[in-house]
């Protein structure tokens, strides 16, 4: 008999608080901090103050949603995260529609975007063609998938190492930017270039939300936490607050070092800032730091996301082969392989910005449903054990939902192409569930 604590499904409880914080912060701090500053500033109409405000609001939205999830996650510490909460609140069809969206778009797209971000940054050191960038991105996904197939603790340890390593170059840019930066960019808090404030607000926040995405991943692996009832609220609070502080300081530092027009003209503002501060060696240092950050974030996604498809299959709401656990490693190996394949295929289509915009929009549709589940659970399951109750109930969930809806509706209006895809896929998933998977579940019941 193994001395490792196992769940009744074969998943192993091997993750502590450090692993949990590393999953939250390690996934959040990925390519976004190095890439997305350009997009947020551009969508703010080159208004520096408005862009920083967008980073702050996106961080607060993420923290509020994460605290709502802490109530759900501590009550239901099971693999699957959001899928579990909205399935129990709104029915399995809604849960399946989210899972299928994650499988083909949101989560697989996140992995793809991170891998492409890694190889794109690598091309700063070693010039690569577009196809070489894509080939390297696929190789990264395959390599990290194999590491995580070897066991959740191995993947968690890799996550912890990269979480610490990625903070070093970020801290250097922040500290030296504030000390050595001499740029005096105007900090207007209204959007520039004659943009509609509401439209600019929504589009800038959606761009920033991509950089914050990942806080929910720890809930997907909550079944493998040693003490989820205590560690989940601590992990998301420490992780999201810490990341918000890092992002805001990092963007202030960029604005202290570089003029606004140079930030929006580059895809690597962090590297440009380091080069302005320290010359070519600084650019190389930050490029290596970006690679570490993106690699760690990609690893965290590959660690967490297949658990959702495993949970769906365990509930007989997805292909049952995904419910298989490798008895030697305690990992959902088939779900991991499928995630690896879909993520690799997505790399062949779309640009980094297209992937990130689509991922953020799709994710927040279901985060909004997840947050609203707090109300449903309080009414539908009044006697459910709640080791943690969300602070500020019922106001805080309501504010989170309202902000989310403003961002989603405005984005649907301003960016219809990506938004329509983000709406159509869940609808197709809902229909597919009732046409096929619901019948399969009833046969096997």
UniProtKB/TrEMBL annotation:
GO CC term, one of those recorded: membrane
Any one GO molecular-function label of the UniProt entry: L-amino acid transmembrane transporter activity
UniProt keyword annotations, A-Z: Membrane, Transmembrane, Transmembrane helix
Record field: transmembrane: 21-42, 48-70, 103-125, 131-149, 161-180, 200-220, 232-250, 282-305, 333-352, 358-378, 390-413, 419-437
Membrane protein topology class: Multi-pass membrane protein
UniProt-annotated location(s): Membrane
Highest taxon above the source species: Bacteria
InterPro entries noted in UniProt: AA/rel_permease1, AminoAcid_Transporter
Record-given protein name: Amino acid permease
Source species of the chain: Emergencia timonensis
